[in-house]
Amino acid sequence: MSALLGCIADDFTGGTDLAGMLVKAGMRTVQMIGIPQGPIPDDVDAVVIALKSRTSPVTEAIEESLAALRWLQATGCRQFYFKYCSTFDSTPQGNIGPVAEALMDALGTDFTIACPAFPANGRSVYQGYLFVGDTLLSESGMRNHPLTPMTDPSLVRVLQQQVQRGVGLVAESAVMQGEQAIARRFAELRKNGKGFAIVDAISDDDLMAIGAACADLPLVTGGSGIALGLPQNFRRQGLLGDDAQARSAASLPPTGGLRAVVSGSCSIATQAQVEAMRARHPAFNVDPLRLAEGDDVVAAALDWAKSRVTQEPVLIYATAAPELVREIQARIGVERAGSLVEEALASIALGLVELGVGQLIVAGGETSGAVVKALGIDGLRIGPEIDPGVPWTAAIQNDPAARTLALALKSGNFGSEDFFLKAWDHLA
């Protein structure tokens, strides 16, 4: 049986975030790291292809996304989803708009939605403006993001700068009336020559109604929240399993081994999570300046962890406040600072697994991508949710005798303050 929903995510934690929402809604889901080289498991309803295209050059992001689309089309997927961050972290040049428009062209469709709302994580869209909690995006911590600073909360305005097609709005006044009202507004926008609709959403009920209204759209774009409302469409068509299958969608094989956290994100949420972990467990700081000076920080971190990780979970982190990040970037360069940290944390993660870590939490999209690559993981089976948008996963491995490796790939902005402390309780 072929998968029903084919998804393209622009980073690794975003892919996991989306996959977790689909599992929560009853779809058996796997996440593939990059474009798959072989077949997917038979018992799968949705496939998420995670790319590393969020901050890559626009042309490269488009090429990778189109290649992923072609693979998903070849597997027989009936609908397609382009997933990006719930804080819409895109510059005036892209990459969200150009990638979405290229996917529309490839699918031969003239209309889609853009809805990064994820109310459970405090991301809502109202009158086309994106809020983080009760704060406009441009007044939140995202305004200081080192790679994609967000200074304009108007999604209509931001997206219109990136695309050729017109951008309209489906306001909350229509959304709250339900599926049919939303569909009527879609029709109005199409009639008026709009190719994109920013859709308001302030609750999960909104997401469910929007999802229902998107049943006939070849392409849906958004954060992971909107995915909550898509599985119901396949269920109505008799294409998705019953309630028993839905309940088993999040099951993972038993896992064991030692426990560790590797954190590279510098988001406000992750900063708080690091501090909470440091107060309870041993922690090692990865200093980018020491890396730049040629110190073998990787060896030092693993030597430090060797005796401690057998006793309790350990934290190895490069997480820092924005002002310190900017100071480091000014001294050694933005790109170099990022690549040094990513490479070091990925090598440390590999070393930790070799030391016997079988349950590993990774914080930060770029860090997660680097870690997954270092570990040589081709795919992930999605398991139980820890916090909204962050599930445990199990690495898909070719060797049936290999020990199961459990991974939680956390977007920097997601998770409660005690995330690192409580995550282990969600594994069997």
Given the C-alpha coordinates, what overall shape results?
globular
Give the terminus-to-terminus CA distance: 29 Å
Uncertain ranges: none
Largest sheet, described in full? Answer: 15 strands, mixed
CATH superfamily of the largest domain: Putative sugar-binding, N-terminal domain
For this structure, what is the CATH class of the largest domain? Alpha Beta
How are the strands of the biggest sheet laid out side by side? 9-10-5-11-4-1-3-2-16-17-18-15-12-14-13
* Total count of strands: 18
Instruction: Supply the number of helical segments.
Output: 16
Structure explained in plain terms:
InterPro entries: 4-carb_acid_sugar_kinase_N, 4-carb_acid_sugar_kinase_N_sf, NBD_C, NBD_C_sf, OtnK. The chain is α/β, with parallel strands linked by helices and 428 residues long. It is 38% helix and 21% strand. It has helices at residues 12-24, 58-74, 96-107, 155-160, 172-175, 179-191, 204-213, 231-236, 243-248, 268-278, 288-292, 297-308, 322-332, 334-354, 365-375, 419-422, and strands spanning 5-9, 29-33, 46-50, 79-83, 112-115, 123-126, 129-132, 135-136, 166-170, 194-199, 219-222, 258-263, 283-285, 314-317, 357-363, 379-387, 390-396, 406-410. The strands form two sheets. The protein has a 15-stranded mixed sheet, with helices on both faces. It has a three-stranded antiparallel sheet with strand order 6-7-8, with no helix packed on it. Strand 16 and strand 17 (390-396) form a beta hairpin.
